[in-house]
Every structure is written in C-alpha cells, then in structure tokens.
Amino acid sequence: MANEPMLKFVVRGQDYPVKRDASDRTADFGEISARYNDEAAGEQASRCSQCGVPYCATHCPLHNHIPDWLRLTTEGRLREAYELSNATSTMPEICGRICPQDRLCEGNCVIEFSGHGAVTIGSVEKYITDTAWENGWVEPVRVGPAKGQSIGVIGAGPAGLTTAELMRARGYEVHVYDRHDRAGGLLTYGIPGFKLEKDVVMRRVKRLADAGIVFHNSFEVGRDATLDELRGRHDALLIATGVYKPRAIKAPGVGAPGVVDALDYLIASNRKGFGDAVEAYDNGGLNAADKNVVVIGGGDTAMDCVRTAIRQGAKSVKCLYRRDKANMPGSQRETKNAEEEGVEFVWLSAPEAFDGTDAVSGVRAIKMRLGAPDASGRRAPEPDPGSEFRLDADLVIKALGFDPEELPHMFGAPDLSVTRWGTLRVDHKTMQTSVEGVFAAGDIVRGASLVVWAIRDGRDVAERMHAFLKAKKAASPAKVAA
C-alpha cells in the first residue's frame, strides 16, 4: 500500500464497507456496516483525484483537509492522516459515521460528477480515527497555562463539547451544564446506536473529563440556577442547548395515548441501551414491540424512529410523508437502509385525524399532490380531495422537526433576545447574545441542523470567547501584590 499513487478511480470502483444483512442487523442496535481493513481503506482513498480546487473540502462545513488525509491513508501514513483530520474536527470518527456525506463532501466529489462514484470519504474518516483510538494515537487534551478565568457551557452536545475542549486547551477553567444525566446531547440520547454506538461518544466525553473539564449533569438552568447566577460564577457563558421543542400536529385525536413525540421515543430507547430503568418503555408506552407503528415525517429523525421500531420488534412500521421520495429532507442512504429493513413508506400522504380515545387505534390520512414551489423553492404539498384512507396504528410517532424552547422564560433571563423563530439573536461578528459575556452557538442560533455545523459553530465561538476574555482581562485593574 505504501507510496501507491492516487487517481485510481478509473481502475478501481467505489466500494463501501460491507453492510450486515438486514435480517441480522435488525436483531440488535449495533452499527450496520463493517469497518475497512487497511488494504480496502488504502484502495478506496487512492481513488481520490487530488483536485486543485477540492469541492469535497469546500462543501464540508469544517473545511477538512480531505484530499490530503486521503493521500496519507493511501501511503500508509495513518497517524499523520489522523492528526490532519483531527486538526479541523474535534469529532472526526463521529462525523465519519453520521454526517450526510451524500449531501456534503461525497455529493460534491468531482469523480462522482464524472460518473465513477464518489470517494467513500466518510468511511475512510471513520477508519482513520478508529485506528487512531486503537493504537493510542488520540492524545489527552493538551491544557495550556492557566488563564485564571472560567467559562460555563450550557449544553453538552457537539457545539458545547467542541467549545469546552478548545477553551480548556487554551487554559481556561471549563464547566459544562446539561439537563441529561450523561453528556453528549443528541449524540448520546437522540441518535440510535445502529448509527452511532454509544461507547464512541462516551470515550470522547471521558477524554474531556480527564482534561479537567467539570461536567454538571442533570442540571437545568432555571431550576438549579438562573442565567444571572451562572454569569456570577463565570467570566463568560456559552448557550449551546440545541432545539428540543417538538413541532406539533393540529389534528383531532392528537392527544390520544400512544401518539408520542419522536425525541421522547428515541431517548427511552437509548436509555434502555445503556441499561437504565425506563418506566415509559417498560410499561409499553414508548416501546414498539408487537405494535403497528406509524411514523409521521421524512427527515433523519423519522428514519431513526422507523428503524428503531423495527429493532424493537414492531408488527409493522409505516412512514407517512407529505412529499415524495425525491423531495424528502432526510438522507437517501437512510431511506434505503430503512427500506431494506422492512419499513413501508407511504409517500405523498398527510394525517388528518387520529382514531381512539383510551389508546390510539389508527391514523386517518389523505393523499397529497405537489403544487407550485413555496418560499423555500420546494413544491408545496396540497391535499388531493376524495383520496382519504386509514392506517391501523397502535403507536404513532411524530417526527416533524424541532423548534427552540422559550429560553428567556426557562432561564429566568428576560433580557435574552430571540428572533421571530425563537432562536437566540446574536451579533454574528462576536457571536454574543444581547447579554454581555453570554455567547450562543449551534442549533439554538441556526435552528435544527447537522452535527458537523454544530462542531463548526463550537470551533468559531471558542475563538470569539477567547478574544473577549483576553480583552476583559486586559481591561480589568491590575491586582496589587500584597
């Protein structure tokens, strides 16, 4: 493999890691794909055309040095490949697993445009970093000289953890506050293990704790401390809570038992995976076993729900989505995985009502058709009169996306300004909110988005916080020695 030249896409075809057979992988929550061996990783990396203007890197929110670490992989210089991938990303093995590469780097690969199939960038990235962990190349966080200042990070998701790591490396005291009993945010409790096994997240969290970052789990701002109280404890704060408020459906019967929110369902499943006692799962409320399940929505969260229901032993799983397959917002790869695993998609359909009083028994729906483009440029769905139909359902999962929670009220911080969408308003030059010394990043600013964008925001806000704290320290009166 050493010193093998690149540009092999004309003689080597695209070859992703082998997926486990659907009947095998649906029996557990393990990841569905094997990992490349050394030879396969080098061969697939060697397909890179080493573009002068690498569109893959341009369309990566982190602007990862993709062609460079592909070449290093081909040459067998794996430690250097890891160090280069780690230079721009705090979580390369996580991005390698869950980024929608088909919409980002791989979707913009030049050899994909030429009809040869994109370089399998995400799978190589996963291989590089997993190899680094196994060989002990992932070093502890190098903590800089103590700055004598502290920051508080509210939210232990990818944006918050990225900022925490980069600020700790600069020598700041870092405290992370999170509502859950484990750090990681949606990486831990929102994304199922078949996409991201939890030990992958937990080892990242442990690395941060080993660096002296203090985690305050099961901590709710507004209950355990107000925002002003946290401001009194720290020299600067970051709000990186993400967006957790589920979008509602307005339809008769939506309040019937058995009509549940996607995040409640996924959190219960992930908690069971950790071995926790989860009453709502154990009593059947958030458990799909032996049930006819209908999931409403077409994004990645909906795909997580349908594939989780299959693994829980559902009698049937249907996904109801108001647009067609070509216009769904979720990853096409995830849709294909779901179809392989036995999920039935009911395209161009929307719910109108839910049957059942003591428990949901069915979904009354109507077929849709695509009309003129809406403000986003996508053709707007509209009902097709006279096309009503009904689906049996013992469990209905609403996966329509997420909106921001009312943070000013929750945090006891009326001075915290929000946009008309409920996201936090920031000065995009400084990334500060309307409250001095309080920064914000990730989904709570940009709305529901991708993990890779949260990491990018965490990286950017760390630079802004560092500049703010340097200026704050310089402006403070010098301490007179006793």
From TrEMBL:
Its cofactor is [4Fe-4S] cluster. Signal peptide: none annotated. Gene3D superfamilies: Alpha-helical ferredoxin (1.10.1060.10), FAD/NAD(P)-binding domain (3.50.50.60), NAD(P)-binding Rossmann-like Domain (3.40.50.720). Residues 151-458 form the FAD/NAD(P)-binding domain. Residues 26-136 form the Dihydroprymidine dehydrogenase domain. The keyword Zinc-finger does not apply. SUPFAM superfamilies: alpha-helical ferredoxin, Nucleotide-binding domain. Transmembrane segments: none annotated. One of its GO terms (molecular function) is metal ion binding. Pfam families: Fer4_20 (PF14691), Pyr_redox_2 (PF07992). Keywords: 4Fe-4S, Iron, Iron-sulfur, Metal-binding, NADP, Oxidoreductase. This is NAD(P)-dependent oxidoreductase.
